[in-house]
Amino acid sequence: MKSTFLLRFAVAVILIMHSVPGMFNNGINDFGNLYLNTVGFAPFGLALAWAIKLSHVVAAILLLLNKYIKPAAIVTIFILVVGIFMVHLPEGWYVVGGGRNGVEFNFLLIFVLLTIMFPNGITKKEQTPDL
């Protein structure tokens, strides 16, 4: 897994930068109270927002330590997929340029995390013939 260090480092930086500033500028509270609570998660929107952002911090640390990669990636991919459907898909594909706040960045992160999880690709295990 040393061959994935650069990808793990890049994703860790992205996850930290996507979560830590919101802990200090009221972004997480706004996300929970002003978005999640209004789309059906009340009264748990704030707690859910904090859980999501704290999971990003934990995933970033685990990616840097090269520990529990698959569970960290699976949780993060789940959050990214839900984010696509709840937030980004209505905005289209593009993050910038042809649009704003679209799905393309989440799509890329999902496949980077899959590559980290499966650095040799997803291969079918060789089966032994029945004797």
Give me the secondary-structure topology.
Elements: H1 5-24, H2 27-35, H3 45-65, H4 69-88, H5 104-117
Shape: globular
Alpha-carbon Rg, integer: 17 Å
Give the SSE string.
HHHHH
Number of helices: 5
Determine the oligomeric state from the structure: single chain
Mean pLDDT value: 93
Distance between the termini: 36 Å
Q: Report on the biggest sheet.
A: none
Q: Give the number of DSSP strands.
A: 0
Which range best describes the helical content: under 10%, 10-25%, 25-40%, 40-55%, 55-70% or over 70%?
Answer: 55-70%
What structural category arises from helix and sheet content? mainly alpha
Low-confidence stretches: none
Keywords: Membrane, Transmembrane, Transmembrane helix
Organism: Flavobacterium limnosediminis JC2902
Subcellular location: Membrane
Transmembrane segments: 5-24, 44-65, 72-90, 102-122
Tell me what you see in this structure.
This protein is mostly helical and 131 residues long. It is built from 5 helices and no strands. It has helices at 5-24, 27-35, 45-65, 69-88, 104-117. It starts with a helix and ends in a 14-residue tail after the last helix.
Output the keywords.
131 residues; mainly alpha; 0% strand; transmembrane helix
Nutshell version of this structure?
Helix content is 64%, strand content 0%. The chain is mainly alpha-helical and 131 residues long.
